[in-house]
Amino acid sequence: MNYFSNQEINNECLAVCDGEFFDCTKNCENSECSRKCFEELDVCENSCPCGADCPTGCVDCPEHPLCADECEDAQLNNNDYKICLNDAIYELDICLKTCPPQIGCHNSCYENYTEMLFLCPCIEQESDVFILVIGRTGKRGSVSESYLQSGDGSSQVSATIDAPYDEYTYYAAHALVNGKLHIFGGAEINFRKIARLDDCSLIELSAQLNREREAGHSALSINDGTQALICFGYGSDNFSVPNNSCEIFDSASPVMTFSSNSTHGYSGLGLYRDQPTTVGCWYEEHNKAETLSSSGWTALPDHPLRISTHALVGLENKSMLLLGGYDSANGRDQAGIWQLQNDEWSLIGVLKDVCFGSALYIGKHIYYFATNDNTRTHPIHQIEMTSDEQIQSVEVIGYQPDRNYKPVLFQVSSNYCV
Fold it and tell me: Which InterPro entries match (predicted)?
């Protein structure tokens, strides 16, 4: 699977390496010289975009000579941009000169000019994606420190969300039901609570979860967003004993459904082949995967790692991605992007940092709000997908203001609650 940012650059780089290797070996007269040529070839190939040192291409090695930014000083150096700009100016000039003395006609000319510019390479466009981020843990685990993040990383502004108390979302799970953001359970006071975000306020509903779910549980929108599946977690009276139970909420009241075969605390839920799926567990440190159908949970192939605290993202092609998380066998976080497709796990990409967090899939972009406890950094990744949902690029577009383990994420408008 090709997840590199620019395979053509990789091919060009390898050709340069081969040329240098040829020049090196043709002057060799002994095996020691040839050995050094091979070593230099390995170093050269590894340093190429998409090579071992730059696995995701120019994203990893922006300083490589072949990775020059085509948009830097585009008005001077990028011929495609200059041609496109001149075409737009030419059309604007004709339009203005043929307009009668009416302001509406002139405004129309400038609107058409702007539309033409948006089609030009290197033109920066304002983000049309905005994500409300509500804290769940740590210093950012308070509703009062919510913020709005733009999808292009250009802005991060405070948002005002009202709630019964400031730590209301602490360790809560979240999912959309009929287009509304709902939170389920969580620590602090009421471990069975269900609340809905109405405008800028979290309103607690009269309905309650059937089981206490203080931490480690997960929620997922199912059945075309009309219901939420809530599973796993730990209650106040049995925090050391994880449970396998699940329940379904439909905006009225939750009802119990099939329990999973293994427990999956701190391991999330995602869609695989349009069915709820989970993998791994924090406390039991296993790698078991299973999926839920109308007849109950059935096993899927084990994940290669004993994984937990990752994010699961279902794709339109029916496969599922696993991002980041904690590898208990090695005792550390991991940066892999794994895909479950055709009942087979494969490593298809690498994050820019080892981390764990929450993810949201919007318009062929995955936004991954994560935390690395070792470096105490909190990167926001943007993973760009191609039209057939292959990874095209991975980049960090910003950082969370502070530690925020698996924050609540919700796509909103640009001025939502700000």
Answer: Gal_Oxase/kelch_b-propeller, Kelch-typ_b-propeller
Over the stretch 319-333, which tens digit does the pLDDT of each residue have? 999 999 999 988 888
CB atoms under 10 Å from CB of 224, counted, come to: 8
Q: How many CB atoms lie within 10 A of CB 47?
A: 15
- What global pTM score does this model have? 0.71
CA nearest to 170, candidates 198, 150, 193: 193
DSSP code of residue 315: -
> Residues 229, 278: contact at Cβ < 8 Å?
no
DSSP string, 321-369: EEE--EETTTTEE--EEEEEETTEEEEEEE-SS--EEEEEEETTEEEEE
DSSP states of 376-389 as a string?
A: TB-EEEEEEE-TTS
Condensed to tens digits (0 to 9), the pLDDT of residues 140-152 reads: 458 988 999 999 8
The encoded tokens of residue 231 equal 């599973």
Encoding tokens for residue 282?
Answer: 């924090």
* Cα–Cα distance, 405 to 411 (Å, whole number): 18
CA distance 350 to 132: 25
Q: How many CB atoms lie within 10 A of CB 75?
A: 10
Query: How far lies 400's CA from each of 122, 252, 309, in Å?
Result: 27, 34, 18
Residues 18, 20, 24, 27, CA torsion sign: positive
- Is residue 169 classed exposed, middle or buried when 0-12, 13-18 and 19+ CB atoms within 10 A define those classes? buried
Question: Any idea what DSSP says for residue 73?
Answer: T
Distances (CA, A) of 230 to 131, 264, 276: 23, 12, 10
| Count of other CB atoms within 10 angstroms of residue 98 | 9
Q: What is the pLDDT of residues 346-369, one digit of tens each?
A: 999 999 888 888 999 998 999 999
